[in-house]
């Protein structure tokens, strides 16, 4: 079984994806980490964000096993990720890796922006997770502030709105709900209720 989970920044995709993966005993890939790793490397190496070929080279050299999620969670890296994610050559370099992960015999859970539309259009279950920008900003603000980042709620909301516009407006694999995805709006749902709703969606689609 392939479960594809897409949605905008800080909607709770990863929280749901990790929980479904544990529940069904499936491997999980947070595909945002791939773009974050490219963005972080570009920042560290002072690569010009207009230099698509150089950024694609970084994407091609990515080692999935060496990713350190904790080191990639900052707001600055998230912003860099969304800038490199606009570039078709970068996306092309990361395509096979994600498709191979989705197609392993065990099945898999992937979360990102284009899983149900581009990476695994054949997925049995597609969930589009969303919440208002204000609810998402509040969640991300708490997360970043909890990690000691000196941010304000207003800055995080502005970042979320900019990311939404860039991710949805780009020409290459934009953030968009797949026609056969079920929308899960968790604005008014806590973590547990959001996960419970996702489990209901899987059950309705697959009987599992
Ligand atoms: N339903 C919920 N209610 C409140 N907080 C939530 C809910 N779901 C997740 N969170 C919290 O919101 C933050 C963002 O969640 P998560 O990382 O799962 O989102 P995401 O969509 O994967 O984010 P991104 O892909 O942009 O990094 C986390 O701190 C998480 O604990
Ligand atoms: N399938 C994906 C996943 C992510 N992106 C881009 O990466 C940025 C960071 O992702 P997070 O999920 O960690 O917030 C995101 O803003 C997207 O621009 C993508 O394009 N496709």
UniProtKB/TrEMBL annotation:
HAMAP family: Cytidyl_kinase_type1. NCBIfam families: cmk. It catalyses: CMP + ATP = CDP + ADP; dCMP + ATP = dCDP + ADP. This is Cytidylate kinase. InterPro entries: Cytidylate_kin (IPR003136), Cytidylate_kinase_dom (IPR011994), P-loop_NTPase (IPR027417). Its EC number is 2.7.4.25. Residues 3-202 form the Cytidylate kinase domain. It comes from Ancylobacter vacuolatus. It is found in: Cytoplasm. Belongs to the cytidylate kinase family. Type 1 subfamily. ATP binds at residues 7-15. Keywords: ATP-binding, Cytoplasm, Kinase, Nucleotide-binding, Transferase. GO terms for molecular function: kinase activity. SUPFAM superfamilies: P-loop containing nucleoside triphosphate hydrolases. It is an enzyme of class 2 (transferase). The keyword Metal-binding does not apply.
